Amino acid sequence: MHPRLTLPSIVLAGLSAIAGVGTAYGDGSSVGQIYSPYVQPLEQEIELVGVYDARADNGNIPSSRWQKIGYGTSLSEGLYTELSFTNLVRDGEDHQIVELENIWQITEQGEYDSDWGMLFELETDLSRSSNEAAVGILNSRDFGRYTLVTNAIVAVEWGDDIKDEVETALAIQGRYRMNRSVEPSIELFAAQDTLSVGPGLTGIWRMTAPNQLRWNIVALAGLDDTSEYSLKIELEYEFF
After folding, report:
1. Per-residue model confidence as pLDDT tens digits over 28-82
2. 8 Å CB contact between 56 and 62
C-alpha cells in the first residue's frame, strides 16, 4: 500500500501549500480553462476559447471578454506544448497576448488512485509591458461514474505597466460521465476578486477516426461581491 501513496502524497502536499497562499490570478480573475493531466501520444490540437466575465460596478476589476486560438502538439510521451494568441478587451482597451503552454503528465493513467500532471505557462502582452510565468499542479480522480479535475496555479507577474506580484488560483471541474457525447458538469473558480460556480455541458463528437472534437459550455454565477456572471465556450479539434 505504501508505494501507491508516495507520489500522490508528495503532490498533494504541494497542492495544499499552493491553495493556502491565497487566491489571485490573471489580474484578479481566474475564470478560464481547466486542464486535465493527460497527454496523448502523437496528438495535435487546434483550440478555440471564448469567455465573457461580467463584474459589479463596485469591483476591483472591470468586466472583460477574451477570445483565444491556439495550436498544440505532443512533443514526446508525456509532454504537450501549445502556442496561442489571445485578444482581451477590458476597459475599452484591446490587449494582444501570446502564450506558450506546456503540460507534463507525471503518472500513467490508473497508476495511482488519482492521476497527476503539471502545467507550465509563459505569456507576454504585446500591447503593454506585462509578462507572466505560471506553474500548476493538475489532478484527475474518478469516483465511479464521476470525475473530479483540480488545477492549483501559482503565477508571477512583472512588467513596467503592472505591479510585480505573486498570485494563485484554484479551479475545479466535476462531471458525470453519462456518455461520451454529453456529460453534465459543474465548475468552480477562485481568485483574489473571483469566486464563481456554475453548471455546464461537455462532451466529445467523434469524427473521422481517430479525430474528434471536444466541446465545453459553462455558465457561472458569482458568489462574492465583485463577480456577477461568466460565460465560457471551448472547442478543441484533436487530430493525429
Report:
1. 467 999 999 999 999 999 999 999 999 988 777 899 999 999 999 999 989 999 9
2. no
- Other beta carbons within 10 angstroms of residue 78's beta carbon come to 17
Q: Quick one: cell of 99?
A: 502564450
Residue-number span of the structural domain to which 190 is assigned: 2-239
The CA-based diameter of the chain, rounded to the nearest angstrom, is: 56
How far apart are the C-alpha atoms of 165 and 30, rounded to whole Å? 15
Rounded to whole angstroms, the Cα distance separating 123 from 84 reads 9
Write out the H or E segment, with its range, that includes residue 167.
Answer: strand 165-176
Contact present, 188 and 23 (Cβ < 8 Å): no
| Residue 215 CB neighbour total at 10 angstroms | 17
Q: Which CATH number belongs to the domain containing residue 125 in this structure? A: 2.40.160.40
pLDDT score recorded for residue 4: 40
Predicted structure pTM score: 0.86
CA–CA dist 126, 97 (Å, integer): 6
Neighbouring-strand partners of residue 172: 150, 188
Q: Which three cell numbers stand for residue 184?
A: 453534465
**How many domains, the chain?**
1
CB 18 within 8 A of CB 152: yes
Our measurement of the distance from residue 49's CA atom to the centroid of its chain's CA atoms, rounded to an integer in Å, reads 11
